[in-house]
Amino acid sequence: MPVKEYNEKSIQILKGLDAVRKRPGMYIGSTDYHGLHHLVWEIMDNAMDEALNGFGKVIKVTIEKNNVICVEDEGRGMPTGKHASGVPTIQVIFTELHAGAKFSSESGYKTAGGLHGVGASVVNALSEWLEVTTNYGGYTWRMTFKNGGSDVSKLEKLGPTNKTGTKVRFLADKKIFGRIEYNYETILERVREAAFLTNGLKMVLVDERKNQKEEFCFENGLEAFVNYLHADRDVLTPVVTFNGGTGKITVDFAFQYTDGVADSSYSFVNHVRTVDGGTHVIGYKTAFTKCFNDYARKNGFLKEKDDNLDGSDIREGLTAVISLTITEDLLEFEGQTKGKLGTPEARNVVESVISERLTFYLQENREMTDGLIRKMLRALQARKAAQKAREEVRSGKGRNRKQERLISGKLAPAQSRNAKKNELFLVEGDSAGGSAKSGRDSKYQAILPLRGKVLNTEKASDAEILRNEELATLIYTIGADFGEKFDVESSNYDKIIIMTDADTDGAHIQVLLLTFFYRYMRPLIEAGKVYVALPPLYKAQKGKEVHYAYSDDELEEIKEKYGKVEIQRYKGLGEMNADQLWDTTMNPETRTLIQVSIDDNFATDKKFNILMGDRADIRREWIEDFVTFTLEDKYQLREG
Ligand code: 28F
Q: 576 and which of 4, 261, 496, 580 could share a cystine (Cβ 3.0–4.6 Å)?
C-alpha cells in the first residue's frame, strides 16, 4: 500500500532511498555480481548481530527458486512499536538511511561494523520488493515494501506465536543489477565463515533452485577454520588456539604452521572480515616476532652478534586467524573501504594475550618449537641470499649484464618502449614462439617463449624463484621486481598475455604462471593486466573461405550455416602458421582475450593450494569457480 500522505518527512526518506538507487556504487560498491551478493551480506550481518549478542542459535539463508533471498534468525524479533515520528520503528529501519546508527547508542552492544541495521534500508532501496516478518512480543507481524521502498504497507499483526525472531525476504531489482542470479559457492563460503566465527551458531544454507542444502555448526570454530584452510596441506604443528581479553575487547586466536612459505592471516572484528588488517593484526605479529626471538636467544639458536629473526622469517608457512569482539564505544575503522581496524587499544590487548600464552606454549612444546626455529633460520638465510640476488634485479629500469644475457637469447622485444601500450606474450614452446614472433605486430608486441618447466611457486622461496631460469627471465623482462617489492607502475608492459595450447599441458602452464602472478605480482592481476589468449580449436574451410571456431558450440554453428566444411582440429599453437596465429589470436582488432581477476575471498588462498596438488580434476574446478574469466570486448570493427 502506498504512503498516502506525503509530508516533508516522507519526501526526505524517498530522497534518501532515491540517492541509493541513483548511486548504488556508493553504498554497495558496485552493481555487478559483487554488489548483488552484498545485499545478502547486509541482511545476514543483521541476523548475525543478534546471534553475536547471544540471541538465537540458528540462522537460515535460502536462495529461493526465482532468486528471492530469505534470511531468518531466531533472535528477539524486531521491536514493533512506533518511533517518535509516529511511524513503526521497523519502517524507519527499512526506509531511513543510517537509521541503525541512531538506535545503537546502548553501550556494550557489539555489532558487525558497529552500524546496527544500516544496511537494511539500502537493501530495500535496491529491491523490487522486500518483506519483513517478525515474531515479537507474542505475535507475528509483517510489513512489505515495493519499488525500492517507495511503497510501504501497514505493519500487520498476523496472529499469536510463542516464537521470536526475524525473517527478511527480498527480490533484488533487475533494473539495477541486470543479472540477479546468486552464486551458491559464494554464499556458501560466507555462511561457513559465519559458523566458524560464532561457536555454537548453526548456519543453514538452502538453494531451492538446485535442491542443495548445507549446515554448519562448530563448537571450536577457529580451530575448524584453520583445519578447513589446511585440509590439503602438510602441517608442522597442531592447530593451537588462545583466547583472552578484557571486558570491552575479547580475543580469539588460532594458528598452525604448514611446510609451505605463504604467510596468511585472516582477521575479523565483530565477526566481519577486516581485509586490510589493522591494529589487531599488528598486535599478533609483534607478539610472534618477540616470542620466537626471545626463545631463539634464550636457547642458543641466535648468538649475541646475530641479527634477530625477521617477522617474515617467523611467519613463513604460518596461517593465523584472529577474531576480536569490540564494544561499540571503542570501534574505529580506517581506510577507504573501512576494512582496517584503527582501535589503538586492540593492539595492546592482542599483543599481551598472545605473548603471554605463546611464551608458555613454546616452553611447553620444546621439540616442536626447536623445529620451527630451525625452519625460521633457514628462511632467514634464504632471505639474505635472495637479497643479494635482488640487488641485481633492483633498478627496475635498466638491467645489468647478467640479466641482459639471460633475456637476450629468449625475448623478442617490442620496438616501442611504450609501457602503456606494449604487450608481452608468454608462449608455450619454441615452435609456437617462432610463429608468434613472425606473426606479431613487432611495434607493440613482445614474445617470450617458455621452454623449460615453469616452477611451482606455491612452495618456493624467493631464492629458488630467482634460480629458476624461466621465472627469472620473466621477472627481468617485466622489470618491476617481484614479491613485496613488486611495483606495478614500473611494469614494462600494459598486458601480459599467456598463450598456451588448448590442452592439459597448456592448462597446467597457465595455472603455474597464474600462481606465480598471484603470489608474487598480485597487483598486476588486480590492475587487470594479466590475460589468457583464446586460440581457436578448429579451422573450418569451405573452398577458399576459412572460419575459425573457438568452442564446440561455435563449430556446430558454422556447420549449420555453411553445410559441408573441411574441419581441422588444432592440437597446438605450433600447427598454425604465423598469419593464422595473428588473425585468430594476436590481432587486437579481432582476438578474444580473457582477463584474469580474483575473487576477494579467503577461499582463494586455499584454492591455490589445492590447485597445485596433483588432483587435476580439482584444478579444473578451481579455475571454473575461482578465477573469474571476463571476456574482453571482442573488437568487431576493422579499419578501412
Ligand atoms: C534476517 C535479518 O535483521 N534481525 C534483527 C533485531 C533485534 C532488535 C533490533 C533487529 C534497536 C532498538 C530498534 C530487539 N529487541 N535479521 C534481523 N533482530 N533489530 S534486526 O532492534 C533494532 C533497534 O530499537 C532488537 C531489543 N533490542 C533490539
A: 580
